[in-house]
Structure formats: structure tokens, C-alpha cells
Design a protein that fits this description.
By secondary structure, the protein is mainly alpha-helical. The protein has helices spanning 3-22, 29-52, 56-73, 75-95. The chain has one domain (3-96). Helix 2 packs antiparallel against helix 3 (56-73). Keywords: Membrane, Transmembrane, Transmembrane helix.
Length: 100
């Protein structure tokens, strides 16, 4: 199977799963979670394809939408990393030189 047929098969399967979930036929929480994280990457991938076909405006819009969706999905992880960074920064200030 060549790469175009494989990609088209994967896209049809993902689209069918999203459509089934939309109409109320749920395939489980794990599938929903995976699809939820795949959607932003699909937007970004379509943006990259549009960029290659010199559709710069469409590409920017798709990548920005995908990035915002991904940012929303990863907000908990980003918050955790910011909290750890603040703790490390605060501890380094305690151990730093007191003459500043």
C-alpha cells in the first residue's frame, strides 16, 4: 500500500470516528481523548499542506486555530510547568547572594 492510500485510509477512519461521536454513537472515553488531541494536529498538518501549495493565508489561519486548540488541551500541563518554574525561581532567590 503506498503512502497516499494509507494516509487517505487513516483520514477516513478518523473522520468516521469523529462523525460517529458527533451524532451520539460514542466509542469510549479513550477514543474521545485520542481524537481530542488529534484534531489540533490535523489542523496544523492541513496548514502545512496549504503552505506548501502557496495558500499562505489559509495556512496561517489553520495553524493558528490548531495552536489555540492545542494550547487549550495542554493548559493543565503548562500551568504545572509554570508552577514548578516559580518554585525553582523562588528557591534560587533564597539561596542567592543577599547583597543584591
Amino acid at each position: 500500500m503506498n503512502s497516499k492510500k494509507l494516509l487517505s485510509t487513516v483520514l477516513v477512519i478518523i473522520g468516521a470516528i469523529i462523525l460517529l461521536d458527533f451524532v451520539g454513537i460514542h466509542l469510549g472515553g479513550i477514543i474521545r481523548g485520542i481524537i481530542g488531541f488529534l484534531v489540533p494536529f490535523i489542523f496544523i498538518a492541513f496548514g502545512v499542506v496549504a503552505w506548501r501549495y502557496n495558500r499562505r493565508g489559509l495556512a496561517v489561519v489553520l495553524v493558528v486555530i490548531g495552536a489555540f486548540i492545542l494550547l487549550g488541551k495542554l493548559s493543565g500541563l503548562i500551568t504545572l510547568l509554570v508552577a514548578i518554574g516559580l518554585i525553582v525561581w523562588g528557591l534560587s532567590m533564597f539561596r542567592g547572594k543577599r547583597g543584591r
